[in-house]
Design brief:
2 copies of one chain form a homodimer.
Chain A: E1 7-8, H1 13-36, H2 42-63, H3 66-75, H4 78-87, H5 93-99, H6 102-110, H7 114-121, H8 126-132, H9 138-147, H10 150-160, H11 167-170, E2 177-178, H12 184-194, E3 203-207, E4 213-218, H13 219-224, H14 231-234, E5 240-241, H15 248-257, E6 262-266, E7 272-277, H16 278-296, H17 309-336, H18 338-343, H19 346-374, H20 383-413, H21 416-446, H22 455-478
Parallel strand pairs in A: 2-3
Antiparallel strand pairs in A: 3-4, 6-7
Helix pairs in contact in A: 1-2, 1-3, 3-4, 3-5, 8-10, 15-16, 17-22, 19-20, 19-21, 19-22, 20-21, 21-22
């Protein structure tokens, strides 16, 4: 009896990456040596070792799943990435291109000539081609489109006509359709003739002769019911459906809530036009949370960690520029009180405490609210109740922590009144932070913007300028 | 012919929430009126309206999927939440409890007596009971365990013995197992006798008489192959498998990479002990990204947005206290230079610019790196290369933006040397931000801590104290 060997998938991802990096390093070490010893008699031996290393690397890569290779490509700096990319067998190029992130895909496609791109994309489905098309050279896309049959060409065109965040851009066309007036036995025989079913086929789509969706037949029901029964008796006639122009974000939430694996997409006339599958939705959920984190920190988009310095600059400049302006405003607020600071220099040392705690507290509030909005737990209707709660939390934090820091200020500078001003300013700035932490994302959402967009930069701007103004203002009023 | 009515799932979530809130408001309005008019002849009429509103709300709730009710419960403040919870039909309590977030679940269970909890959990599977058990009153858990048969009791115990982030805690036990030496025809007949298949059954598990996993039979293959064939001829003998003590995070990544729907969990002897399904993995992916965002902002855990003020304070105090200390340190750094500020008060106005831009830039770097580490794209091995890149970005940003702000400083205060000090300080602080933005998460990861933990608070602390020190130090050296 042969021992079954199981594929050990998880926990070895970092290991695999390390192996590839190790082989790459050996390869480069040898290359360096070979360069230095050119013409030398050792060169031939080194070249042999060099070739052995590359062969071993190639063997390693051939064993890996396309998704794992994609992962490794994403984790490698550009030079190493292209070395690995060239070693990957040409017939796997397409699968890998579909798996990598946009930023990395761009770098890989830039390294391929038209001929290679055409070869890699030859066997792709219409939905996969549509995914890739925006990043391919224009003439390659034309050539690809010409090679498709009319139905597929229409599908690619239709998929491309939707926005990235619409259901239509994410659906595929690998639907198994059946009629409602046949028996399950007939369905079973039909499936056997197909030889293979598309991935994620947990239900068959029941359509009439015009292609109008009548219901779905879950494979589970097909398996447990008497083969004599008709499809119409067994099918679910009220499946969750989607429309191509719907928001993909909502679709992903529906998949999550109703534990869907696949779902039909129908047009406004009820005609079946495609299907959504859980794998696309999982990718979308992952992407959404990424975008949210990055946007809050003021990063424009997913950044390939080994992107060139120039690309990184481009990704980060916009919000840094905004931050420069807000910092300048904060600086001018302080400038208004230069006279007070000259008289009491302790103010300069204490003012960043007021601003800093306010910024931290405001970031906590805004993070929580952006999160709740992303999960649709919070509309714009609960504002006042939420505001009351956040203000209460801020008031208590302000009195307690402000009190502590007020005592510290007294101990440092021996002035009770300075301590009281400190406590008062902390409390007011925390209240401002709570107010802005609620109002900024709510307002952005109300005017139809992404509530996460630069949230962190904006709240910090408010609590900095506000904190300086409150503290220096109170000090000027009561201490001088 | 009857028109098929389709369930329109997405895009109506906010609508449904709004409808429930509306009905609740009407209900409360009437209740208020009734209170005010007690003893009055109108009271009876109002009571009728009141009852009608509640009945309508109940009807609305009965139509909703448990996941949707869970969502609505999460989005409601405590009082309204409990009103809705009491209207939900008792037999759906269990399903809903399994869907809500931990924080909300706690508030719902606190509102139920032991009898209600027992009724709600009566029909649960072992894995669902294990999910709920930690939050139930101790005596209820005992009673529940006593009502289980030996196998289920053992399963609950086993599931509870794993950490929350281990595969063993997330697996379920609804596996359909078959033998390898039977024909597909026999399998099909066996399935029909089962009457119903567990959710997410995309493959059957092939085991020997000792329960050792020999392979899996994808339902797809069962459907398209000749029924005469034997299971052993058709099954996949190298499926992706998991072990109960593996990290659930890695399992979720494997599900994502290999587009899995279900996968077997086997113990170290190769015996099938449970199964993982994509729905649990999707929840995990969602949770992970949430935890990451919250941790970066210094929030301990998921916070029910309508949690009491006291709970919110508890969730946020720890990092605020840390922030208080770091702010105090920054204040003392400034304190060291009070003499310089007294001589040149412009320093007080300009220093927050240096600190602020550094904080923003450091947050961008740390966010990107925490993100890449969470996605396993970055080990601790790439540190030096990444550091070089981030330092290059910081240098350019420092010279460019620092130059701009240096010119502004000159225009404001008419001192070229002040402008140059400003530019130099900005550049140095951005370099510090880049260094710390890379080193903080890398170091946390190397010592086995969560790299996201309070990342934002820590980087800001570094760039504040560092920025003040660099700027005031340079100014003291060169300007005074």
């Amino acid at each position: 009896m042969s021992e079954v060997e199981f594929k050990k998938a998880p926990d070895s991802l970092q290991d695999r990456l390390a192996q590839v990096v190790d082989l790459l390093h050996r390869h480069k070490l040898v290359e360096d040596l070979a360069h230095r010893q050119e013409g030398h008699q050792h060169a031939r031996v080194e070249n042999l070792v060099h070739r052995q290393n590359l062969a071993e690397l190639q063997r390693k890569l051939d064993e890996l799943h396309p998704a794992d290779i994609a992962h490794i490509l994403e984790a490698l700096p550009l030079g190493d990435r292209l070395t690995v990319w060239q070693l990957v067998k040409a017939e796997r190029d397409g699968d890998i291109l579909l798996e990598v992130s946009d930023a990395v895909r761009e770098s890989l496609i830039a390294d391929m000539d038209d001929h290679e791109i055409l070869a890699a994309t030859r066997d792709m489905d219409a939905d996969e081609l549509a995914d890739l098309a925006p990043e391919l050279p224009r003439d390659v896309v034309h050539e690809l489109m010409d090679s498709l049959d009319a139905q597929d060409r229409e599908r690619v065109r239709s998929a491309l006509s939707y926005e990235e965040d619409q259901v239509g851009a994410l659906m595929d066309f690998e639907m198994v359709t059946i009629r409602e007036d046949v028996s399950l036995e007939v369905v079973l025989r039909y499936l056997r003739r197909l030889k293979e079913l598309p991935g994620h086929t947990d239900k068959l789509f029941v359509v009439d002769y015009d292609g109008i969706l009548k219901g779905v037949l879950p494979v589970k029901r097909l398996l447990v019911n008497d083969p004599e029964k008709l499809v119409v008796e067994v099918m679910a006639s009220d499946p969750v459906i989607f429309h191509p122009d719907e928001d993909a974000h909502d679709a992903a939430q529906a998949f999550e809530r109703y534990d869907l694996i696949s779902a039909p997409v129908v047009d406004r006339t009820g005609k079946l036009t495609g299907r959504l599958t859980i794998d696309e939705m999982v990718d979308l959920i992952r992407e959404e949370s990424e975008t949210e984190v990055l946007n809050m920190a003021g990063l424009r988009e997913e950044e390939d960690i080994f992107a060139s310095v120039w690309k990184s600059l481009g990704n980060r400049w916009a919000w840094l520029a905004v931050n420069l302006i807000t910092a300048f405003v904060a600086s001018r607020v302080i400038g208004m009180f230069e006279g007070s600071i000259e008289k009491l220099v302790a103010l300069a040392a204490l003012m960043p405490i007021v601003a800093g705690i306010g910024g931290n507290s405001g970031n906590q509030t805004i993070t929580m609210i952006v999160r709740a909005m992303a999960l649709d737990q919070l509309g714009t209707s609960n504002t006042s109740r939420l505001l009351r709660k956040e203000l209460a939390v801020a008031l208590i934090n302000g009195l307690v922590w402000g009190g502590v820091i007020g005592v510290v200020a007294y101990l440092l500078y021996g002035s009770w009144s300075l301590g009281v001003v400190m406590t008062g300013a902390m409390t007011l700035n925390l209240l401002l932070a709570a107010l802005m932490g609620v109002l900024i994302p709510m307002t952005l959402a109300r005017v139809g913007r992404d509530p996460a967009m630069g949230a962190s930069v904006m709240i910090t701007a408010m609590t900095d300028s506000g904190g300086f103004f409150i503290f220096l203002g109170l000090a000027t009023l009561f201490l001088l």
